[in-house]
Amino acid sequence: MENPEVQDRLFKEALEVRDQLAGKPLTYEAVMKMKYMDMVTSETLRKWSLAGALDRLCSKDYDLTDDKGNLIFKFKAGDYIWFPVVGLHNDERYFEDPNLFKPERFSEENKDNIKPYTYLPFGAGPRMCIGNRYALMQAKAMMYYMILDFKIERSAKTVKNIVDDVRGFQVNPLGGFWVRLVPRSS
Predict the structure, then answer these.
(1) 94 domain-assigned
(2) Is 70 within 8 Å of 184 (Cβ atoms)?
C-alpha cells in the first residue's frame, strides 16, 4: 500500500512472535509484547478515526480560557459539547505532518510527547469506550494472522484518500474499503 516499509517491519515482528510461540496459538501476552504492532494500530486509529467527533453533556458551568487566562467561551450546565476527534488527530499543533503515516509517533520514546486529550480514538474519562481494550486486542490479533499469511496491496477499487470521501460522522467511503490480499509463500 502506501507504506511498504511499515508492512515489512510488522511482518518481521509477527514472524518473531510466531517463532516464539512455537506452534501454540496467539496469546494475550504475545500480543502485548508486539510493540510495533501497537504503534501501527495507534497510528491507524489516529489517521483514520472510527468516530469523527465525541459528544458530552456539560455537568456544570465552566469557563474555557486560553493559555493566558483570557475567556474564550462560557459553557453552561446542560450544554451539549462536540469534540472534533478527526480535527484533533489531524492538527499540526498536536501531530507533526498529520497526513503522513508515522507509527513512531507512538513509540516508547515519543508517546509521552503527545499532549493529553489530543489523541482520542476511544474517547477519554468515565465515558471512554468500555470495549476499547477488547477492540484493540481483536484488531491486533486479526492483523497478526493477516500479515503472516498475506501481503496487503492496493486494488483497482482502493480509494486514494478515504477521508476525502467521508459522509456523516464516520469514515465510510462510498464503495467501501478495498484492498488486495496477496498470499505469502510459505
Answers:
(1) yes
(2) no
- Annotated binding residues for heme, as ranges? 129
| Residue 18: CATH number of its domain | 1.10.630.10
Residue type at 87 in one-letter notation: G
- Residue 58 in grid coordinates: 456539560
The string of pLDDT tens digits covering residues 79-105 is 999 988 989 999 999 999 999 999 999
| Binding residue ranges | 129
Pair 13, 36: CB distance under 8 Å: yes
> CB under 8 Å to 31, separation ≥6 — which residues?
37, 137, 140, 141, 144
The whole-number pLDDT of residue 162 equals 65
What does the alpha-carbon distance between residue 90 and residue 85 come to, in Å, rounded to a whole number? 9
Angle formed at CA 10 by CA 139 and CA 20, multiple of 5 degrees:
90
Residue 161 has φ and ψ, to the nearest 5°, of -130, 100
In-domain check, residue 166: no
In a domain, 41, yes or no: yes
Backbone φ and ψ for 153, nearest 5 degrees, come out as -130, 165
String of b and e for 130-157 (b: at least 16 CB within 10 Å)? eeeeebbeeebbebbeebeeebbeeeee
Dump pLDDT digits (tens) for 8-56: 999 999 999 999 999 999 999 999 999 999 999 999 999 988 888 889 9
